[in-house]
Every structure is written in structure tokens, then in C-alpha cells.
Design brief:
Blueprint (H helix, E strand, L loop, with lengths): L1 E12 L2 E12 L3 E5 L6 H9 L5 E4 L6 H7 E4 L11 H6 L10 H10 L15 H14 L4 E5 L7 H16 L3 E5 L3 H7 L2 E6 L2 E6 L1 H4 L2 H8 L1 E8 L2 E9 L2
Parallel strand pairs: 3-7, 3-8, 5-6, 6-7
Antiparallel strand pairs: 1-2, 1-4, 8-9, 10-11
This protein binds adenosine-5'-triphosphate.
The site of adenosine-5'-triphosphate (ATP) has 10 residues, from helix 1.
Length: about 240
């Protein structure tokens, strides 16, 4: 089943289209890594698809009434600071708002998935930056929406938390949900994502399996780097190796 369909989605900032006629679909079971250099339009695409920015073209989420949309898609925004001096459990439970606050089991599941059980009663404002980031991911997970859109979810996390978070997202996809996550770490994306969408100057320039999207020419043309690929018993490895320009 298709969880997100964009057709010619265009988002302008001033007169300039920063998302330019993007068409794509995301189905159940997909973990899509949204990649591209700084300023490529990743955040704008996610926000436009959700209706948080005015857009032209179509997004299937925009066809839904706000309440239905809140149940169809969870969103993890880029900002990671928690301003409210309340418990971790209270922050994560905010993810249940589209379900009128019901579903304490979903809050428990989200805390467990993000390894936050020991932090449940801690004041969220007294956690480190990376810990707060994990709490906000858990809040998005607690929504238990069929689709999760996450803007740079692993930024600022330590290696263990990065790997765990990518595993959690891969698990969600394996369970039949859909995940779209913008991500700068191409090595993590290559290992965990089922598909990569490469955005450049607001347009999709490649869309497919990670090995295919992270081709020598795409890396050179879009990122200005060269990279190293290997297939290992532990799965695919990709590492950017050098700057070309
Ligand atoms: N409020 C704004 N007003 C004008 N231009 C904006 C605004 N927000 C973003 N832009 C421009 O839109 C383009 C896309 O920005 P966006 O934040 O979507 O990129 P991104 O791919 O998420 O980048 P990054 O990887 O750096 O987070 C950039 O060129 C940016 O300068």
C-alpha cells in the first residue's frame, strides 16, 4: 500500500522553487533515505509534503483532513531542544495527541525502542543534547503512524545511538510501515535504507537502491566527492573518501 504520493510537489521561497516538481511514492515496507547536500531542499520537501509549508502540486497527505493527517504521518522536525521542564515520559506521551492521549502501551514501546526506560522519570530539560534527541524520536514513534518523516534523526547522536536508531527505523519498515529520513551520513544510509532518494537543487536526480544511487557520477556531480564501496559479511560499506573540487 502507498503511504505517501507526491506529484510535481513544488515549494517556493520567494520566487525561487527550492523544491521543484518532485514526484515520488513511498510504500509500506520502505525505509527511504533522503540525501543531498546542504540546501538541496530536504527539509523543505518534508515540510511541504506534510502541509507545513504552502506548496503547488500534490501530496497525498494534504488530501487528508488535519486529524486524519496526524494519524497518517508522524514528523520529527530538525530542531532537537526540549523547552518544557517535564518528565521524559510526559514528552513521549505528547506523541499520542492525535489519538486523544490514549495508548500508554505505545509510549512504553517507544521508550523501549529508543533505550529510554532508565530515563522515563528524568526531567527532559536536564538530559544531554543527544539524549533529548532520542526522546523526541521516541515521541514521534509513540504516535505509531503508518508513515514516519524524520528530518536528520541521527544528527548529534553517538555511534551506538545512531546505529540503534537506524535499526529501529529499518524494523518499522520491516513491520510494514514506511519511513523517510533525511540523512547526511551516507555510510549509515547505505547500510540501513532500502532505497535512497537523491535531491539536488530541489529536484530528484536519483531514486533507487543505495548502491545505484551512490554511483561514482552522482557522488561527483552532486556532492563533489569520491567514495569507497565494499560488500562485507556485515553488509554494504560506503565511505566518502575525498573532495573532488
Ligand atoms: N525561510 C526561508 N527563506 C528563504 N529561503 C529559504 C528558507 N528556508 C530555506 N530556504 C532555502 O531553501 C533551500 C533549501 O533549504 P532546506 O533547509 O530545505 O535544505 P536542506 O537540504 O534540508 O539543507 P541542510 O542539509 O543544510 O539541512 C536553501 O537554499 C535555503 O537557503
Amino acid at each position: 500500500m502507498t503511504l505517501l504520493a507526491l506529484r510535481d510537489l513544488t515549494v517556493r521561497r520567494g520566487t525561487c522553487p527550492v523544491v521543484d516538481h518532485v514526484s515520488l511514492t513511498v510504500d509500506e515496507g520502505e525505509f527511504v533515505g533522503l540525501i543531498g547536500p546542504n540546501g538541496a531542499g530536504k527539509t523543505t520537501l518534508l515540510r511541504g509534503a506534510l502541509g507545513l509549508l504552502p506548496s503547488l502540486g500534490q501530496s497525498s497527505l494534504l488530501a487528508l483532513a488535519p486529524k486524519a493527517r496526524a494519524r497518517a504521518a508522524a514528523f520529527l522536525p530538525q530542531g532537537r531542544e526540549i523547552a518544557w521542564p517535564v518528565s521524559v515520559e510526559t514528552v513521549v506521551a505528547l506523541g499520542r495527541a492525535p489519538h486523544l492521549g490514549q495508548g500508554t502501551e505505545a509510549v512504553d514501546r517507544a521508550l523501549t525502542r529508543m533505550g529510554l526506560e532508565p530515563y522515563r522519570d528524568r526531567k527532559a530539560t536536564e538530559l544531554s543534547g543527544g539524549e533529548q534527541a532520542r526522546v523526541l524520536i521516541a515521541r514521534a514513534l509513540a504516535q505509531e503512524a503508518p508513515l514516519l518523516l524524520a528530518d536528520e534523526p541521527v544528527a548529534g547522536l553517538d555511534p551506538e545511538a545512531q546505529l540503534r536508531t537506524m535499526e529501529v527505523f529499518a524494523d518499522l519498515a520491516a513491520e510494514g510501515r514506511g519511513v523517510v529520513a533525511s540523512i547526511h551520513d551516507l555510510g549509515l544510509a547505505a547500510r540501513a535504507c532500502t532505497r535512497l532518494v537523491l535531491l539536488h537543487r530541489g529536484q530528484v536526480v536519483a531514486d533507487g537502491p543505495p548502491r545505484q544511487v551512490l554511483s561514482e557520477s552522482n557522488l561527483a556531480d552532486v556532492f563533489g566527492v569520491r567514495g569507497f564501496h565494499a560488500e562485507t559479511p556485515d553488509g554494504p560499506v560506503f565511505q566518502p573518501m575525498g573532495v573532488l573540487r
